[in-house]
Amino acid sequence: MRERAISTAWAWFGNEEERSASAASDQEARFALLYQRTYPAVLGFLRLLVGSPEVAEDLTALVFEKALAHFEEVRAPESATAWLFRIARHAAADYFRRAKPTVSLDRLLPVEHPQAEAVEEGAIAREEARVLLAHLERLPGREREVIGLKFVAQLTNREIARVLQIPEGTVSSTLYRALRRLRTAFNEKGGAG
């Protein structure tokens, strides 16, 4: 009887270890999936915020390092993306507090536009992108964040609301205002920066 109780205890202990190992591998798999799914969006969002591809890459690595360290705190899978972008926002804010950079968003322009078939089309596309980035640079920080999360990170309004911790209606109105300002700037100045 005693041997049976001991073997049952060891069997339970072994199952606990297996459950723990299984949970750890599940967590690693979920983090790997989150990383694969969100890395380009986080990098693009940070590039828009900081205006420097090199700094954005460094900050993106920092974001995922912090996320990995605290990933077990994420309870609901649907909140993981918003949680990750909050980390990205905080990383950018910390960077601006420390460095006080003065970088133009013009550094985000690609050297050669991928859709340009002719030299003239490439020049026009680069100029349009430069003008857009110049207008984006003039937007208030919150509007630029919403534009970045919507069009660079391709988040839904609900996800943006989770990231910024504001009501979804505020996201919609901020997005509307930002797009209206950009449209007005292009119409008034003929697209010229």
User: Care to count the β-strands?
Assistant: 0
- Helical/strand content category: mainly alpha
**Global shape:** globular
Total helical elements:
7
Strand-residue fraction? under 5%
Mean model confidence by pLDDT:
79
Rounded to an integer, what's the Rg over CA atoms? 23 Å
**What's the order of the H and E elements?**
HHHHHHH
Biggest β-sheet description: none
Terminal CA distance: 86 Å
Helix percent reads over 70%
Outline the low-pLDDT stretches: 5-14
Describe the structure.
The structure is a single chain. This protein is mostly helical and 193 residues long. The chain has seven helices and no strands. Helix 1 packs antiparallel against helix 2 and helix 2 (53-69) crosses helix 3. The chain is globular and about 55 Å long. Residues 5-14 have low confidence and may be disordered.
Write the layout of secondary structure elements.
Elements (H helix, E strand, L loop, with lengths): L1 H49 L2 H17 L10 H20 L19 H20 L2 H12 L4 H8 L3 H21 L5
Helix pairs in contact: 1-2, 1-3, 1-5, 2-3, 3-6, 5-7, 6-7
Features:
single chain, 193 residues, mainly alpha, globular
Summarize the structure.
By secondary structure, this protein is mainly alpha-helical.
